[in-house]
Design brief:
Shape: flat
Order of helices and strands: HEEEEEEEHHH
Number of helices: 4
Number of strands: 7
Strand order of the largest sheet: 2-3-6-5
Structural class: alpha+beta
Largest sheet: 4 strands, antiparallel
Radius of gyration: 20 Å
């Protein structure tokens, strides 16, 4: 239950603490119309955030999205693939590795996981009707906390300090 809750919340945002980058491995026997290159997705990739070509520095910037188009798919044998027109592609992605590292979690992320677990278990503990109402309430808390945590993660990634404009400061 715990790991599935963590993976659910990891899936829902671009968490700086759970982001990794890797050079993608090319696949030669598979193609998809409209794409020149096919790569295997990293085994620990929960969600690909961006695909990009080699960058000099920094590699990769944690706060910048690439403009390279890509598509994620799979083969009949369930291999996860990345289709793109970028040669020698790299990817930035949310890694499942961090699901087992709660000491790396942002506090708001942890709170969202707790609310999600509560939403999934409270009906069995409390009973049918009141339990389902509580379950719905905890799910709402989880979604609200995930939204707040995503904003917090964005601010951390961007390094934003002060969002008050100089005009407002001058009026004080």
């Amino acid at each position: 239950m715990y790991k599935s809750a963590v993976l659910y919340v990891l899936q829902s945002g671009d968490w700086p603490f759970a982001t990794e980058a890797a050079i993608l491995s090319a696949v030669t026997h598979t193609s998809l119309t409209g794409w020149k290159y096919v790569y295997t997705s990293p085994a620990n990739a929960l969600r690909i955030l961006e695909v990009f070509a080699e960058r000099k520095a920094p590699w990769p910037p944690e706060h910048q999205r690439g403009d390279t188009a890509f598509e994620v798919g799979s083969t009949a044998t369930a291999d996860s693939l990345v289709f793109t027109n970028t040669e020698d592609a790299r990817a930035r992605y949310i890694s499942t590795t961090f699901a087992d590292k709660p000491d790396k979690f942002d506090p708001m992320f942890s709170q969202a996981v707790v609310y999600w677990i509560a939403s999934q278990t409270v009906a069995a503990i409390v009973g049918l009707d009141p339990g389902y109402k509580l379950s719905s309430q905890y799910r709402k808390y989880a979604m609200e906390t995930i939204k707040e945590a995503r904003v917090s993660a964005y601010v951390q990634a961007k390094g934003l300090q002060d969002t008050e404009s100089s005009f407002i400061k001058a009026r004080k």
